[in-house]
Amino acid sequence: MKKWNLIVDVEKCENCYNCFVATKDEHVGNDFPGYAAPQPEHGHEWIRLNTFERGEMPMAEANFMPTMCNHCDEPACMKLAQNGAVQKRPDGIVIIDPVRSKGQRAIVDACPYGAIFWNEELEIPQAWIFDAHLLDQGWTKPRAEQVCPTGAISSAKISDEDMAERVAQENLRVLKPELGTKPRIYYKNLHLTDSLFVGGTVVDSKTDDCVEGAEIRLLKGEAEIATTRSDCFGEFRVDGLPPDDAAYRLELSQGDRVTTHECRTSGSLYLGIIRL
Amino acid sequence: MRLETVLFGAVQALRLTAWRFPEFRARLGEHNAIVQLKLADDSVGRYIEFRDGKILTRPVIHPAPDVVIFFKDRRIALKLLAPKQDFLFRIDAMKNFKMGMLGPDELTVWVNEIVSLGQSSWWKQGEDIGGGVTRFTNNTNGGPVQVYVKDGKILRITPIDFTDKDPDTWAIQARGQEFRPPRRATAAPYAIASKSMVYANNRNLYPMKRVDFDPHGERNPQNRGKSGYERISWDEALTIVTDEFKRVKKECGPGAIAVSHGSHHLWGNVGYYLSAMQRFFNNVGFTRVHHNPDSWEGWYWGAQHHWGHSMRLGIGEVTGQVEDILKECEMMVFWSSDPEATNGCYAAYEGTVRRLWAKQLGIKFVHIDPYWNHTAALLKGKWIAPRPGTDPALAQAISYVWLTEELYDKKFVAERTTGFEEWAEYLAGRKDGVPKTPEWAEAETGVAARDIRALAREWGKRKTYLAAGGYGNGFGGACRTATGAQWARMMVMMMAMQGIGKPGVNFGNMQTGVPHDYSFWFPGYAEGGISGDLNFTGAAVNSYQRIPLILSMNPVKQVVPRLQLPEAIMEGKAQGFFTEPSCKEGQFIPYFYPAPGYSPIQILYKYGGAQIGTMPDSNRWARMYRSENLPFVVSQSIWFEGEAQFADIILPACTNFERTDVSEWCSAGGYGHQFFTQLNHRMVIMQHKCIEPLGESKSDYQIFLELSKRLGLGPVFSEGMTELDWVKRIFEGSDAADLISWKEFLKKGYVVVPPEKEKLRAPRAYAWFNEGRKKDIPEPHPLPGDYSGEWLEGLGTQSGKFEFIPNSLLKVDDPDRPALNRYERSWEGANTTELLGRFPLQLMSAHSRYSFHSMGDGKGSALNDIEDHRLLVDGHYYWRARISVEDARSRGIAQNDLIRLFNDRGSVVCAAQITSRVRPGIVHSYESSAVYKPVGEAGTSTDIGGCVNILTSNRSQGARSTSMGPNATLIQMEKWNPAMAEAAE
Q1: What is the C-alpha to C-alpha distance for residues B521 and B260, in angstroms, rounded to an integer?
Q2: Is B199's Cβ below 8 Å from some Cβ in A?
Q3: pTM of the shown model
Q4: Residues of B with CB below 8 A from A56's CB?
Q5: Which fold has domain A3-192?
């Protein structure tokens, strides 16, 4: 059985909001009986753009991650829903029935991802429906994918086995896996949102020039976490560190010159200038 | 065929159409009239009587017809009545009285429309995709779209994915890989949000009159913006407007009517300001509000003197860069360049995939911008954040390192340039005693000397592309500041030092230089459309030959600079310098308002979108609108936004989804020649009328036609055509007609231009110049007379070489633009110490990302919900201002707090977005709010709409140029609360 999955590559998301706008275009003022009642003109974020800034000038990053209904295989909302208001379709898509869900605000609160929105006027919970109404008409992909300029959003209708293989191959992750909700929205390069980097600028203590090609070893205790080299601006960056308050030691060297640097992570760190 | 038979056949065709199409029958019933067709000497005639929707006819001369259509002789009549029109013949016949149409405009225009509908009623537009849904197409500033319509209402608007039937896509082989873009057209958020704008709650749906405006009594200009509106009929509104036209022309003389329009608005070749608007007002006579080259500024006033390119207002060649980057380039330096935010103007996200290819290839990126912009966020790389306006110093220090470490192309400099010795002396500080070292620049720019040195060395050693401005070889916020001309000049001077044109060394950021078929022609929006204007559009390049129409010319020679329009009206005088693309010296010639023999402006006719938020020192405009010197203001606009609130009469226009038009995507023409170079596929788009105009709104074309009818200009304006006829005429005059039939085009709605054959691809920009050959770039620039040597030999400079010390600037001796491009500090920036004490922050007002100028902003559009665009606080959507963590902390400002930005020119409230992406000391906000909402008196009080241009200076970059430098703006900010609003009121 082939089922729908969505793969979101955080590295390719550039915060253009096309997916957000297309979803509003699809649902504001439009009623799709059996799928979704109209979205309110303003306020709902069925697809939401989240910003994750890391570091500081001159080593700042801005990374972006769209979030939406995860179309979980174990949907928390479905468990709470009365009257069969939340349905899991055979193709994996979760639909909150716009009629049966009337008055069930608990469905909004049930979602651990904050992806369900309350329609005050219609008194129903609403979420991104993976454009199921369009897929059922023969569309090959949801609109969020169609409008994405970079390919950061792509869908795959494949068997769960094939998807599991893809997850392993591409190192895909889901949000809050510990909840056991089994989302069908997978993320690539999620470390850009939930890990830290440590970076700095290596400067020649004699000439005050940037040092290119210095070797940097990052150690935690005695364990070597990573090694890297500085670029032509003397800059280096070790990414993917756990988001913990942790102590690190850096050993920097070029030829016979060596120096060390201690640091503690409270977020991503730009260490500034390190003279060698 | 005999004329008698043709005339009879024409009537039968109308009858058949009426039998088949009820809409056509309904149109027939609009008037009862007798229309006489005849030869001028009455030797042949047939009249048609339209009575209560029925058609009666007899082959005789009627004694009292309402409308007469005459032809001089049989030959002329037969040619003009043939199904396929020879427009050159028809124009000649009309202009030289070989045919004519007599009768009241109301009827003659109607008869033309009936004749036209007799054909077009049979045409099928859009595709029926089942379920009662028709899929149409349209085109926008942010890309072409498909429009799904059900029951007369827009269901959805999507970008276009290609099918197998569309032509192949080009591919480039480089470094062992093949690069081929996706087979689709991308779209920008403001295109995808179009439906929300069409159905916005502040559409102007009915003609309106300001309640205390009486054209025959008290006009109360001082109450503009305050007094509210009442609904009036179209007839009343149009009559007031045309009566005022006639009155001021008679009482005051020519020039009393001025027309002001925003730069961008809707998309199309018919309903565009350079088309229908220009045609109409040329026929009325108007004072032109002359636009400065607002996107080009430093390139126009500065860079072009070194390397020519006047016809692109100072920016360079646009072919071959994509292949060259993929094959050769090692590093790209983005300098004031954020194509992911500015979309190369109209190119949506077409360049994005190509930049991602560059990333995939491991090409190094450097981003020079005080803001970690969206392109930097996507591509990553090295961030260099100079203090705004100090960029020329940074560039000079890089040049200094090249000079002293011999990291420049000496052969190129020796053979292809002039004046380098003098420039090198300046860099070395031989005359002024100040060598332009990285240390010197560090003090000026705030960029560490070691970073400058590292960049200069890397650049000097590696094949590097300079991505200057969003287009890669032009534009950029750094060209719109006090030092804008210095910066743009430095950009081209640096590329001259690096030997522009050799493999891997050029201007570009993957935005230009796609291997298109550059010989395929479809008119861009600036190529005149239906204006027939050769002087102030790009019609002379191609449209004039390809789509002949009756030329129009404005008899009023008075011109007023847009940047000084408020002063012209309030103080009665203004001076400007021309935006003149034909040569680089045109810009030195001043013009004055009022012009000798002309009337001061009495009527301001505002057309198009909100522009008040895009004009420096915006409050001047609010004050102008309330001036006693301005007796009448018309706003022809779609939404009640921006300055529409200051109009006496509002004429409600519809969007391009409610009227018909045709266009090529991202094709500007004129000084935006070959703008489509940015796309992955060239596309010609049928802009279907997807739905009926909302309320009583009308297309701009229709409004101009209605006004024309009241001035006796109906047939002069329409040339006997409907909007759809114009569309067909443009289509048939273009190369699109060779790719697809009219019938199929109407149905499918778009056609993709096949890519150029690999062997015929346009060459790499400047390779010819670098290699000392004649120019082989497929562009008609410069004009033959602008070459000094033989035609196609050298650049458009006096020497034909790149001039480090430009001859053209030597001649004018302008103290603000010395021939030697020495560094001069900004008049309002990091080094203006007295002002800095009071206003310690620098405002950067970049082009907006989620709206296109003011298009898409405000008006209840879906874009308001984008938190990075506006933020909803207590029921109002506040404009965003991005500030640094440090500046927020020192002022006690928290995330999303309302903040008041202010200086001596005014104050604006925004919602704070605290970020690590701006250099401390900088406030980054967009320049194009569509909302102007003063909390108290307009023109003086605090604005909560978000027009940050209220804070910017209208000082020109030079006393002898008409340019703007809004990025040279110092401000202060503080937390704002509603109590402060009350206090202000």
Answers
A1: 30
A2: yes
A3: 0.97
A4: 885, 916
A5: Alpha-Beta Plaits (3.30.70)
